[in-house]
Fold this protein.
Amino acid sequence: MKRSHLLLSIVAIAALLLFPVGITNAYYIHLLETIMIYAILLFGLDIVVGYTGQVSLGHAGLFGVGAYTAGVLVTKLGAPLLVALIASIGVTAVFGAILALPALRVTGPYLAMVTLAFGTIVQILINEMTFLTGGPMGITLSKPPLFGHKLDEREFYWVVAVMLVLSLIVVHRILRSHLGRAFEALRGSPVASDCMGVSVYRYKVYAFVISAGFAGLAGSLYAYSEQYISPNSYNFELTVLFLLAVIMGGRKSRIGSMLGAAIIVLLPKLLDDVEMFRYVSVGLAVLVAVVAVIGIQRGRLTAKQMAIPVVGSIALAALSFWLKTMTDWRLSIFGVIMLFVVYYLQDGIVGFVRNALNIKRQKPDAQAANAPLVGGDAVSNAARTDTGGEILTAKGVLMQFGGLKALNNVDLSIKRGTIHGLIGPNGSGKSTMMNVLTGIYVPTAGAISFAGNSVVGRTSSDIALSGIARTFQNVQLFGEMTALQNVQVGLHHTFDSNLLDVAVHTPRYLRESKAATDRAMGLLQFVGLADLAFEEARNLPYGKQRLLEIARALALDPQLLLLDEPAAGLTAPDIKELISFIRKIRDHGITVILIEHHMDVVMSMCDTVSVLDFGQKIAEGNAAQVQADEKVIEAYLGGTAA
Ligand code: ADP
Ligand code: MG
């Protein structure tokens, strides 16, 4: 951590802890306590929403599960505080898994509906299971004792504050680890995640379970904080509010979560009376105007972009002075502000301020900058295997899409240690072949064996881990992640650390993390991208993106590397460089299948070339043989004559 950050954190934590010393009004202490509790939940929700990009409308339900676990344990069994907190985390995580395992088979609106149904079911169960939950009557409990001393309102505030700081540290560590990278990667490109050995389904569920754990912790703290829980608290409105808080505050940001929590707790209170509303709306208008002026000055925003937000917030301020009472307007204004923020600040408040003031995200891994640069050795850790023999054989592969046979009875046999070209006119089935080999499609018929094992029917991540890496014809990088992080996702398989290792930074985790960072830097250096390690992948020039994809694929330590048109869109000097990379990769003992349109590239490098046309293999041989083949000439002339 940078010294300025450390100092800022210490000041913030001190302010948080000293708050109830300076301000003794129990109302304000309780208000801040509620914000902190919501923030803990939102840290977790942000993992699901911000990082993995899934929707959850089930988090109020999970919050309720946490609250009731604590409530029941305390009232029925007299469980002490720490037991109740840990049990709530555990029980809610289990509920999270129960929700996630079936729900995450679907996405988008379906996922929203399933999670919503879950929330409703939880509420009904709490209502009906009177023997356990007290039904609609709810559960009343008091502030817990800790180490034999009964906590008062202020002391419990400190418990919550400590939990907030602990949650912050743990979430932060998770998100910076290989786990966090997996979550972020599956949002960036699910297909590439799977092909890097990071199972999308498994990590979505994992994210949900971790997220549920935080919801459980928040729920149990809430039960103690309110001293009364009832089924009605965990309703649809709350779940939507949570989601809005993450989006408004700014996804992928802990500050955003805290800000979001503050907004959903404070805004309704601030709209309680018209006096307060005037302060808020004028404050807001000034803030928006200041950000707009600075942003426009720095060239980060245009006047046109900012016109509506500025006019809108001024109009809101004007409205506040026109109104005499709030009673009839409260809900509508709350709704309008929410809509406004969600519509205009799609990256949330934090994202907007960051963009307007041109603040870069923190570097993902500060140690990486000092990592020693490993040279060409970074390319492969896999032991060099003997050349000769077949690494991959495909027999009679048929891939049918409706009536179209994208691959029709194709045989392929790839010799170990060679560069095998796969060519053919557009639409001849080359990319489909790669998708079949990497488990993205299951072939309609046929057999494929890689290094002696069948590939058909296995998942992409499983196949990737067994040693097949690939790049994509239309580049599939994890756009919001840096170049370094992209390669680190490829190194996911080098980690054995679990959640606990990550949370407490065990020596094992630190060792694995350092090794992965060093190796990733080495790979970036190999493809000439070391200088751009901390640049977001989506900001790299197209040619560099293609090289980054190759570096990421190499991180898997593959025996077989599939390159789908790696030279497409590259300039002539870049292509030359690419050829030398591919040769080096082969020299490291990695077998390469190369799909390419640039005939000179194919002809100068490939040991064997197979030619596809309309899904069928029409020729095979060395470069000269294939080039002279009449069927090949005809396919190309026929296919491109127009
Ligand atoms: P190439 O990479 O050789 O240009 P492709 O393998 O991408 O060709 O495509 C081969 C044929 O299969 C094309 O006609 C394409 O439209 C079709 N195809 C590929 N993927 C699908 C799919 N998922 N659904 C339907 N048709 C597909
Ligand atoms: Mg293609």
Observations:
- The radius of gyration is 29 Å.
- The pocket of magnesium ion (ligand 2) is lined by residues 430-431, 473 (CB under 6 Å).
- The longest helix spans residues 200-226.
